[in-house]
Amino acid sequence: MSREKAAQHVLDQVERHTQWFNRSIPMIASENLISPMARRLLASDFHDRYAEGHPGKRYYQGLVYIDEVERECRRLALELFRCSWADVRCVSGTEANIAAFAATTKPGDLITAVSTADGGHISHAKFGGAGIRGCAIETYPWDQDAMTIDVAKTVKMIRERKPQLVVFGQSMFLFPTPIQEAAQAAHEVGATVMYDGAHVMGLIAGKRFQDPLREGADFITGSTHKTLPGPQGALILGNFPEGAEEQQGTLARKLDRAVFPGTVSSHHLHHLAAKTVALAEHLDFGEAYADQVIKNAKALAQALHEKGVAVLGEKRGFTQSHQVVVDVKAHGGGSWAAQALEDGGLITNMNMLPGDTSALHPSGLRLGTQEMTRIGMKERDMADVAQFLVDVVIKKEKPAEVSKRVAAFRERFQGIHYCYQDGAPAYKFWKLG
Q1: Which of 30, 96, 353, 392 is the most exposed place for a label (fewest CB within 10 A)?
Q2: Residues pairing with 215 in the sheet
Q3: 243 pLDDT band (50/70/90 cuts)?
Q4: In this structure, are residues 41 and 274 in contact, taking their beta carbons and an 8 Å threshold?
Q5: CB–CB of 60/86 below 8 Å?
């Protein structure tokens, strides 16, 4: 294949991918669609430029307008999350977490976090960002019925083990974390409390989940591309005194230095511009969007339960977030089910459940409603989505046949909602060359 043909081949694959998703049901809990206005900015001249430091304190010239965008991005983040300090430069949630670990720990320090088997994120684990920092990690006692930390045992553990950093937040995240008592214990032993809100940032901003900064967290890290429907990127947020980032020794200063020059050089300025638009849109539409996301998750969980699927969290109403977690061990396991569903036009991911030991052969599936909501689905549509999943996983219908029904169903949902160009086509890809 010539180089020119190779380049064209890449363009063809992107178009095929786009059309495939256009006729499928997107259910990955860590993905979303950006708005048409935000998408335009990703292909702007901002993509080709470089910035280091803060607006007005750069190491490069040519950043007059970029500085203005970054100032506005920070202002909107402060307003949206009702906080006094924000760093908008991180390009991923994991990078934000690594910066946070660098700011709050030194190699050998103990941190506490949710285990990956119970839903913790890999960046909190020994084999992830925390391990790269050289931290020792202990995981919280888990309440499987409540699908969250066992508060009393966690408080006891924190007081006995005296960690340097206490991390809350998960990747499998059905219910708000009861952090107040644990955060109080953490502060008693001199620990810093970090809340990783990557999955639920849009729900927090939409005032529909919990309010970590007022429940005991010292700062929040989180992605901007999950329930907060922006571009790939992240935020770090806190309530620090004005000018704290200038004061040596303060947590704000340590976080600031850990981001730059610690973990970020240029911070992907086209993403910064798109992030700014996403924050503005969420200020206008975020509460309605978060409300519908959670309604859809509850409706999907109930529909699956009524159709005989084992849905976790039943004692608490299945979910209070965008996620629904199901146990499909009896029907072939998470790995098999995720592949069969992909063949049937439902894009999901396998997921470890409490008690699992293999990430490659887990018992469960993690389903998300945030992108389905973004393209206009409501509670009534969740019954159809649940039926497609049952047809593939339980009834063992041929995925190719189910995919035809899924494609026909998806034709009704071709726009992006909760943004400034409400209802604009969700997927546009202009073939080049």
Answers
A1: 30
A2: none
A3: confident
A4: yes
A5: no
**Residue 118 token pair:** 């119970």
Q: Cβ contacts of residue 363 below 8 Å, gap of 6+?
A: 327, 328, 329, 333, 334, 352, 353, 355, 356
What is the Cα–Cα distance from 362 to 271, expressed in whole angstroms? 34
Residues 273 and 142 in one domain: yes
Kindly indicate the confidence band of residue 430, based on its pLDDT and cuts at 50, 70 and 90: very low
State whether 394 and 266 are in the same domain: no
Mean pLDDT of 417-423: 94
Does a structural domain hold residue 30? no
Q: What angle do CA 237, 239, 243 make, to 5 degrees?
A: 100
Give the C-alpha separation, 168 to 131, whole Å: 17
Residue pair 99/129 in contact (Cβ under 8 Å)? The answer is no
Are 163 and 186 in contact by the 8 Å Cβ rule? The answer is yes
Range of the domain at 131: 39-277
269 and 187 housed in the same domain: yes
Mapped to the 3 state alphabet, what secondary structure does 59-113 carry? CCCCCHHHHHHHHHHHHHHHHHHCCCEEECCCCCHHHHHHHHHHHHCCCCCEEEE
- Token pair of 328, please? 């499909």
Structural domain ending residue among the three candidates 219, 242, 277: 277
Q: Are residues 69 and 115 in the same domain?
A: yes
Q: Cα 122 vs. chain centroid, distance in angstroms?
A: 13
Question: What's this model's pTM, rounded to 2 decimal places?
Answer: 0.95
Which residue shows structure tokens 């992108």?
A: 371
What residue spans of 105-200 are helical by DSSP H? Answer: 129-132, 151-161, 180-188
pLDDT tens, residue by residue, 62-111: 999 999 999 999 999 999 999 999 999 999 999 999 999 999 999 999 99
Of 277, 312, 333, the residue that ends a domain is 277
Contact 364, 334 (CB under 8 A): yes
**Residue 165, domain member (yes or no):** yes
Q: How far apart are CA 22 and CA 427, in angstroms?
A: 7
**What does pLDDT average to over the chain?**
95
Identity of residue 194:
M
∠257-260-262 over CA atoms, to 5°?
A: 75
Number of separate domains in the chain: 2
Please tell me whether the peptide bond between 176 and the residue prior to it is cis, using omega within 30 degrees of 0: no
* Domain assignment of residue 4, yes or no: no
Residue 148's identity, in one-letter code, is T
Q: Where residue 292 sits, what CATH number does that domain have?
A: 3.90.1150.10
Separation of alpha carbons 335 and 175, rounded Å: 24
